[in-house]
Amino acid sequence: MSFEYYYITVVSLVIFVVALLIGIIMNNKYYRVIKESLTQVREAELKGPSAIGGDVEVLTCPRCGYSKTIPYRLGDYVGKVVDETCPNDGERLVVHAIYSSRPAEQSL
Ligand SMILES: [Zn+2]
């Protein structure tokens, strides 16, 4: 066995070990990324469908009729007086309606 064959064997072995290490490191990285994305989805599910979907609520001023649409907040219901105030007269706004802005085929 000549030196060249020995050299090629050692080099290929080193390359194999390096490739193996890269594979393990990348696996760990991907595992972490997949785990993080899964926990994010789980957190979003815990927050309720409003966090994922496009549920919105309409706030109106009972005095002048001013209205604005905001993303739905958990615990809000129609008729609830919220902390937001009307920019025209300072009256506290009331939840007028809550609806989903998602496309019909997704909410079915
Ligand atoms: Zn008003």
Q: How are the elements arranged and paired?
A:
Elements: H1 3-46, H2 49-52, E1 55-60, E2 67-71, E3 81-85, E4 92-100, H3 104-107
Antiparallel strand pairs: 1-2, 1-4, 3-4
The structure holds zinc ion.
Zinc ion binds next to loops.
Q: What features would you describe in this structure?
A:
The chain has 108 residues and is an alpha+beta fold. It has 2 domains: 1-46; 50-107, Rubrerythrin, domain 2. 48% of the residues lie in helices and 23% in strands. The chain contains 3 helices and 4 strands. It has helices at residues 3-46, 49-52, 104-107; strands at residues 55-60, 67-71, 81-85, 92-100. The chain starts with a helix and ends with a helix. Residues 61, 63-64, 66, 86, 88-89, 91 line the site of zinc ion.
Question: Any key phrases for this structure?
Answer:
48% helix, 108 residues, alpha+beta, binds zinc ion, Rubrerythrin, domain 2, 4 strands, four-stranded antiparallel sheet
How do you describe this structure in short?
This protein is α+β, with helices and mostly antiparallel strands and 108 residues long.
What would you report as the Rg, rounded to the nearest angstrom? Answer: 29 Å
Low-confidence stretches: none
Shape: rod-shaped
Q: Quickly name the level 1 CATH class of the largest domain.
A: Mainly Beta
Order of strands, main sheet, comes to 2-1-4-3
Record field, number of beta strands: 4
Number of domains: 2
Percent helix, as a range, is 40-55%
In what range is the share of β-strand residues? 15-25%
Give the helix/strand class.
alpha+beta
